[in-house]
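Case study: Prefoldin beta-like protein.
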Amino acid sequence: MQYQEFAQLTPNNTVYKLIGPVLVPQDQAEAKSNVDTRLEFIRGEIKRVEGQLKEIGTKTEKKKQELVEIQAEAQQQSQAQAPAPAAPAITA
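Here is what the predicted structure looks like once written out:
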């Protein structure tokens, strides 16, 4: 929003900076530079967080796959160790 407002400024406009309870005049070039710097910082943070999210997603998928493999392995072991069903006893 500030960036769009700066685009509409003319050299005759005055830019103010809020310092405590006082509005102090500020150079337009300095104000634009400050906003540009903040926007670059925000873009960098967005990139960093998106990278972290992607990395976490990749790790999550890996862990899900490992869990599926472990569950399949445990199921195979339990089936192999299950005793054979006993034959019914015949009484006469």
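For the exam, be able to explain this: The mean pLDDT is 89.
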